[in-house]
Amino acid sequence: MADTITIIDDRTGKKVTVPITDGVFSSSALRDLDPNLFMYDPAYLSTASCASSITYLDGDAGILRYRGYPIEQLAEKSTFLEVAYLLINGQLPTATELSTWQLNVTHHTMIHENMRKRFVDGFHYDAHPMGMFISAIAALGTFYDDAKDIFEKESFDKQILRLVAKVPTIAAMCYRFSQGLPFVSPNNALSYGENFLNMMFRIGDDYKVDPVLARAMDVLFILHADHEQNCGTTAMRVVSSANSDPYTATAAAAAALYGPLHGGANEAVVRMLTEIGDVSRVPAFIESVKDGHGRLMGFGHRVYKNFDPRATIIKKTAYEVFEVTGMNPLLEVAVALEKAALSDDYFVSRKLYPNVDFYSGLIYQALGFPVDMFTVLFAIPRTVGWLTHMQELLADKEQKISRPRQWYTGVDERAYTPIAKR
Ligand code: ACO
Fold this sequence. Notes:
The chain is mostly helical. It has 3 domains: 1-42, no CATH class; 63-258, Citrate Synthase, domain 1 (Orthogonal Bundle), CATH 1.10.580.10; 265-367, CATH 1.10.230.10. It has 18 helices and 5 strands. The strands form 2 sheets. It has a 3-stranded antiparallel β-sheet with strand order 3-4-5. It has a two-stranded antiparallel ribbon with strand order 1-2. Strand 4 (63-66) and strand 5 (69-70) form a beta hairpin. The model has no long low-confidence stretch (mean pLDDT 94). Acetyl coenzyme *A is lined by residues 261-262, 265, 289, 295-302, 350, 352, 355-357.
């Protein structure tokens, strides 16, 4: 059987045949038929907007790989900074490359004093940390006059390094501000995850990061580092396609992530579990979702229709964390909810399974993060994925400024009516 597709325009009888490669055919076929013919594809359900060699995802088989490496192996054997190197450079680092990369990241964690004193201090005392984070990332670019030199490799690599190194510092700063706590400077002797936890929670001199919790933080960062063309990454690519600087583009991607259907879901999960409050109320909650009163947050995924491999790893990490922190009482509700949903035809027939957010919120809560910080915790590692996609887009000769077409459904031409006659 030929790997081609033939499209016939029944209005004219004209037809084109184009090759199918890896299940994809080029939309140039439509342009060949009629340059004014467009596909109506809201939310890009059937549209590949780019070719990418970063992350492979098979939703039906529950497969997720970064640069070919299965997520399960990376979560078990690697560290977040090694995975960041892998994503950005396409290969695992040698020992020397890794230590140079770690050293460079560690030495770019500081941020300009004015960011804190003049910028962050200007927020209202109860500002949402994610709103602060998004604004602070955009503002960070104004501190570097080479931020816009995106086509000079040395400069662009420097911005990647700065952003990867500084996002935990900014995140912790936003949190400390919202708590009215003094800012803790980055500590170069600590690992990426340890340093972040230290900047977040250090009060006094005797704070020591538990290695199990630091490792859990690292695993969560690995799992969230990239997930191909989701809403935030698409925002990153669209903004980058206008050749904006990486700080502005990252802020735009983070803005998309802020939405409750995307990165805000784990915050919504904990709120939902808190509202349910007790295992005895799980059946009534399930019924209310089935009756159309809200969604079961942390369930369902646009791509994973069987299981989300990240959810499996996270569930295991949750139990490791609870060994140290003590059991999160909401876990019992979560487990009962998962069990009830997975044995209910409403969820099974719609292929709704727990996604990465179903358990991550419980871990974050056990680690001591307030729910408002959850999306920020997602944005820290995802910054690596976003920047990797920007890098790929800028090197892709087939990419142009993003500019989809629309299907106009408004009124036809009409004459302006003076206000007195309306
Ligand atoms: N609870 C109840 N019903 C659901 C849920 C849910 N969580 N998710 C989907 N459905 C139902 C829909 O109502 C719809 O039912 P219908 O066919 O009777 O109308 C059907 O399942 C298909 O749903 P869609 O909205 O078309 O699925 P889509 O792929 O567009 O949505 C999404 C994916 C946004 C993730 C959705 O499943 C959802 O809202 N989940 C809850 C929020 C969440 O957990 N988001 C995190 C995603 S992971 C991430 O971003 C990191």
